[in-house]
Amino acid sequence: MIESLCGPEVNEDYIAHVAALDEKLQQRPPDESHGLVAMQTVAGQELHPDMEKLKSRSLVKIREYFLSKIGELRKPKTNVQMIQKAGLLKYHGLMHFLRRHQPEIADEIRATYEESMGRTLHQLFKAYHSQLSKLELDIATKHDLIVVEEPASKSMFSPKSAPASKRTDAFSSGDRANILDSVESPPILVHVALAEEKRFPHEAILRSVLKHLMDAVTNEYLFCIDFFEDRSGEAFNTILGKTVSLILENLENYLFSCWDSIGLLIMIKLVHGLRMVMQRRHIPVLDSFFDRINLLLWPRLKVILGAQLKSIEQTSPKRLGSITSKPHPMTRRYAEFASSIFSLHGGMESLGIAGGGEDMLLNDLMNLRIGFLKLLKRMSDELSTTKEKLVFLVNNYDQVLSLFRDRHVAGVELTSFEELLVHYRSLFVEEELLERFANMITFVQNTERNTTPGAATTVPGASPQDLSHRIDLAQVEAIVRGFAGMWRSGIEAIYQDVLECFADFRNGMEILKQVLTQLLLYYTRFQEVIRREWGRQPPSFSAELVSTATILVEIKKYSRQL
């Protein structure tokens, strides 16, 4: 034992001999025959100085060994876990010996490890982030607003990647949200990504950094429990304090010029997913760190949403370029943006991850919708005719709804646009029919208004029957013959007009059905006026009335083209 304790080697035999020495150094129960503690015997007292020398020599040797192994942690490209496992944890019994006989040395070993490991991890994460920054894909800039005024979209200072009025990638989540399904996937291998010329949005870079951090935290947390017998987390805080501060600083620097609201919302959900991973590992030491990340992400998201709302509310339609009845580019940007946000928002409240942030998000989206609808109305007022205004609104509402349905947006956002589309479609139907069948429609509406119950009271002494006889026979005859002569060409003109007016074929065909159905209803009501007025003695021109069956046959021809 003496040879091993005094020799240069630190191995399994050495561990066993230190354990034996430790046992001898400890006070033992009194000897049953003499009632003495071993060290109180004559032999024990003679051996005591030698035992103390062996203890002192062992303390020095153990100290030198541990400091040597900890020093290896600072070397470049060191396999940290290998040193921890084979060089430190394997000899945790020696650390126990230090704590019992020289706690000051044990504290020195711990402090040295914390300082060395903290420096090593800080350098590793600093280098990794520096390498990852070369792979970052720029998604959005401050020019990527839902509404971009014409001078700004043509400015020489605008990004060269794409004209702002044509960009939608900054507003669409695309497949970026897939990262939320693989939060525990291996981190990005920089050398592989560089070789394959890959680029990543910032949420992918943040996930890789945090995945490495979580694995490092897990390793250090368990190591400190096994080696230092520290369950308080104090050693962890000392070891990873600088690394955590570095990650937060890098995130702050990114957020300072970040305009990627989609990415921010993905990162918020990503942080929640990673928090759940650490909870499943029963390692809670990163909870406050994740909270600090959220406190950085939410305010920046609020700033970006505010900028988007400002771009909508403060824009003059006259500065949006040429406004036609077709869907405006900003409509697609709004629809992509809103649908992406709603898609990512799904489940946030039930997960309890936002701390009230989800309410702020929904309120901002509501304000965004209200502002967008007001802007559309102001833009429609720039068009000259009522029909152009209606077509513009229908086209834009329909484009929003198409994207919302594709992205499975539900709730008040969807129903708001559905109600608007139904309303303005009906207004267009009336406007389209008045353009070609105004005489008949006006006659039907006026006649029905004058013959409804209570209408006669507006004329003293008159009854509905009296008013019905005021119908102008010549006017009715002109309407009958006019309709008979042009109804087919009128339907064809409506068909062509609807195809030209509406950008989406499906929307156009739905409107065509409504127009033709409403035309048939108006003509049916016109025939009813004639029957009610003349009964069984219709005027001669009644023979020229077109039957509803004939009109239905013609309508079906267009239905087969749908």
From TrEMBL:
Protein localization: Golgi apparatus, trans-Golgi network
Any one Gene Ontology BP term: protein transport
Keyword list, A-Z: Golgi apparatus, Protein transport, Transport
Top-rank taxon, per record: Eukaryota
Ranges for domain Vps52 C-terminal: 116-424
Keyword Protein transport: yes
Pfam families, per database record: Vps52_C, Vps52_CC
Transmembrane segments: none
A GO cellular component entry from the record: GARP complex
Molecular-function annotations in GO: syntaxin binding
Domain Vps52 coiled-coil residues, every copy: 1-98
Family per similarity comment: Belongs to the VPS52 family.
Protein name, UniProt field: Vacuolar protein sorting-associated protein 52 homolog
Species the sequence originates in: Rhizochromulina marina
